[in-house]
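Bench log. Compound arrived from synthesis this morning; before running ITC I wanted a structural hypothesis for how zinc ion sits in the protein. Inputs:
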Amino acid sequence: MSLITYLTTVRFEAGALSGLGNDLNELGMKAPLIVADRGIERAGLLDRLRDALPDGRGMATFLDTPPNPTESAVLAALTVFRSQGCDGLIAIGGGSAIDLGKGVALLANHPGPLAQYAAILGGIPKITAAVAPLIAIPTTAGTGSEVGRAALISLDDGRKLGFISPHLIPKRAICDPDLTLGLPASLTAATGMDAITHCIETYLSPRYNPPAEAIALDGLVRAIGSIERAVADGSDREARREMMMAALEGGLTFQKGLGAVHALSHPLGGLKQVSLHHGTLNAVLLPHCLTFNESHCAQKYAVIRQRLGLAAGHDLAAHFQALNTRLAMPSTLSEMGVPPDCLSRIAEAATADHSSATNPRPADRDAYLAILKSAF
Ligand SMILES: [Zn+2]
């Protein structure tokens, strides 16, 4: 069976943030908890958000979102949510803030512990419509979490697990490309490579979902046509708009499943001894996973080449490696600071990740270890 679902109401335009008051009223949200991080505050985006809120709302704020969301941060934000009598959430930021918001929205009306709701632990049917309403406002163009049904959260025991349910999809996504104008070049590149990886992995997923494939290819073409311009000139509003749309489209296609890149980047992102950016990990891993999958995706690789205007038989792995170089991404995992002694543990964890099942070429522990070594 193919489960094909498109649910989120998205408001997409430059300046869309100014309509936030209407969204709150339509959702009946009277006391939202704002979830963000200190960088959002420093960038002045929190003030812009508050300016868009009706009087008296938006006083409850949680700013301690870590770079990779954790169970303890979810519980800390939940304490604020309860003590302030909140009835919903506004998550503004990158994927971390939005995923953290999803975790709080879940536990606001579902008993703990959090782990019981993880997808690989059989938690999907335990997540009900009682999830608190969430408005997602992305300030990067990468994660797609604003329209995705998944939250990636590191448990206190170190496992980075996916929490997946249609009930976790934000009730509203406000996609305002102007909010990304101040994003530094390095983050524009890293988050943009995350969006590109979402489009490629969901397109290559073997599940039957032609609408998702069409959206993924459209997102890929938009992102490839814009990422270098957005990185070179952060004030290029057309490039920012196209990158935000590509990220949104990548997120819409998550339902088709991701693949080996994310199966590996999820456990790598959960490492406690080093904080690794999700998009940068994906950028480094993508060429190696493209090489691994090639024998099982000849037709789809031909379509990607054609859509990107590349010659027949062009080496896609080399193409994306060259793109990484032009974007000043690191070229290896060791350059990122991945410790060599974790590789076999990461390979094992990748086989258990929820994204592994939809990689086009079945991958076992040895296959993941070989990919890690080639990317190291
Ligand atoms: Zn991702």
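What the model suggests: The two ends are 38 Å apart (CA to CA). The pocket of zinc ion is lined by residues 194, 198, 262, 278, 282 (CB under 6 Å).
ITC booked for Thursday regardless.
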